[in-house]
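COMPLEX REQUEST
Ligand: thiamine diphosphate
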Amino acid sequence: MSIIKPKDLALTEEKLAPGHRLCPGCGEPTTVKLVLKASDEPVIVCSATGCLEVSTSIYPYTSWNVPWIHSAFENAAATASGVEAAIKALKRSGVYKYDKVNVLAVAGDGGTYDIGFQALSGAFERYHKIVYLLLDNEAYMNTGIQRSGGTPSYASTTTSPDGKVIPGKLQTKKQISRIMVEHEPAYVATISAAYWQDLMQKSKKAFAADGPAFLHSFTPCPRGWRHADNLSIELCKLAVQTCIFPLWEAEKSDGKMVYKLSAPSKQIAKNPDKKKPIVEYLKLQGRYRHLFKPEEKTELIKQIQDWVDTEWNIILERCGEK
Amino acid sequence: MSKIVKQEMMGMNGDTACAYAVKQCNPEVVAAYPITPQTIIVEVFSEYVANGEVTTEFIPVESEHSAMSTSIGAAAAGARAYTASASQGLALMYEMLYIASGLRLPIVMTCVNRALSAPINIHGDHSDAMGARDSGWLQLYCENSQEAYDTIIQAWRIAEHKDVLLPVMVNIDGFILSHTLENVSVIPDDAVKKFIGEKKIPVVKKPNGELTPYILHPDYPASIGAIDLQDYYFEHKRQQAEAMNNALKVIKEIGEEYGELTGRTYGLIDPYMMDDAEIAIIVMGSTAGTAKYVADLMRNKGVKAGVLRVRSFRPFPRDDIVKALKNIKACAVLDRSMSFGSYGGPLFTEIRSSFCYECDKPIIVNYYYGLGGRDAPPNLLDNVFNELKNIAETGKTGEEIRYLGLREGEKDAVNYKAELVSFKDLNTGKIGGK
Ligand SMILES: Cc1ncc(C[n+]2csc(CCOP(=O)(O)OP(=O)(O)O)c2C)c(N)n1
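STATUS: Structure written out below.
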């Protein structure tokens, strides 16, 4: 696939217009704009309830320069299934003008890991040709930072607060993308806006895929993670460099899902010295402050590091790097 | 000269009649999930798909919530969308029912009426649909399989009418209609096709004053399902109420147009021998058939009995009902569902409030009946007429809220009144146990 130049980006139409009400530093619009720019064909967006939806569609204004629908929280994949099926049938009856229209479902981690998981799993099993974009900011941000299945260990949220006896969320983050690979769809990839070319190449692959595609975006939330607004892209980078969020893709080849490490993570696989300790990532975020103050909780930080290492090794194995 | 089309008589149960009508309508998308007693619809339709008898995209979704969500996506993208459900399935759809109507999407659904859990029960009553009575869907209740077939065909025209643009729920009684073989006159495919016409897209005004087709279409980027706060939501809901009101006229018009085509005319209500009736049973769904039969028997005995079947519960045809009951002395409203804690069932409360400011009003009593599929045979309805006769003669209402066909006062487990014990009592074996 050809290299995308910044100039190309600047020249393509903004499908998500500025002027929306997402917070400064929010990772969601950056990812969404880039993914939309990667679509060469017309695209229809199906949003789940969440920050993106409420901040871009306050009637009588809208930020969407593409057809957009929001119906509920847990059903982005089902709504997208209906849009995809409708276009298929309308094309068959000869009344549809376009040959290819991309259908993009967008949801947060709450709308994906938790309440929307059934609809997502069903849509992928039925093999609808949709692209599902998960904007993973690791908590229910729209309702005020509650824990989700995507919240990582020891992160403090309003329903897993760090208290006198409990140090934030006790469970680990669900590996949603690997679960999606087990659905054996056409394409699965993890993306991080710091690596925007990788993000766009993968989005292009997703739109071109011959079946359902899942894009898992690492999406910082300054408000929920309690970090400075200008650190979002830095965190997007650090998440990859510490390997807490490795970049990889899995494609169906000869009916089998084949994992492949993406360049930024592959460099670390080749030079393990480049793998940064997780503490560098943690200490920038207020949601982990209790791990450092009043005194450093070395044991808990070590547990997080161990978890990162274990999961990273699993990915290395799947990608044939071990 | 009659313009009535040639029709073919087919033996079908209510579910198959619905599926057959949907086949003839050939909607672009059908998304459904099986549940007794609706299952036959999904199965029969799947066969039509497998045999290439329709060009529909059939989506065997993983839940009813997704069935409605998928229908919403499909309808917003410009497709005709159909689904069918019942009971727990409809209950699982609840959230999406309001969204379908609020987004003004003309989806058609069959609800094969079944009791709601708990206790679980697969048989017919109206609890499921009544739980959705405020969801903004039109609700039409059918008396028989013929009507089920006819109503599915009319439903598209009503739903897609520019003054309505709301989803329509066609209700048929579980098992009594869904699983019972009846003769159904069907009209030819091309007559159905012509009657429903091609799908049209409504043109609406954007907040900036420009006109735009209300559809997800690349050439007309519209935002459907935006967040709508204190400053606009109320006006949009008012529009929805207006559309529901408009449906009163549209249901009649379409029912008459359908009558010209088939010889079977439909309206909001179905009065039977009401012109000179002194007592009447008011009922929805298949029980109307039994009530009409019993009314005939009463008439043979010289009793001026009538039946008023309410076909359209949403919108509620208040004026038509008041007019139809004006000269009645006493009437019984039969409710096949409960609104717990309410003074009377859903149909009863609507009808009573309809008469609030009327000078001439009948004595109105309420009977709960048929819950969980409990049979309502002629002898029970005969009792109702006899009690009405007594009320009409004496002018004494007696109990306003009554139960029909219910065992009461029996000293068995069903009627046992619970006492409370503590966990400690359980440990000491106070009430027996192992
Ligand atoms: C059925 C239902 N339950 C709960 C809610 C309330 N709710 C709205 S958005 C949201 C959280 C969204 O979190 P996420 O999916 O992670 O997206 P984010 O806002 O973080 O982008 C919740 C709980 C709802 N709208 N619908």
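REMARKS: The radius of gyration of chain B is 23 Å. Chain B has two domains: 8-262, 269-413.
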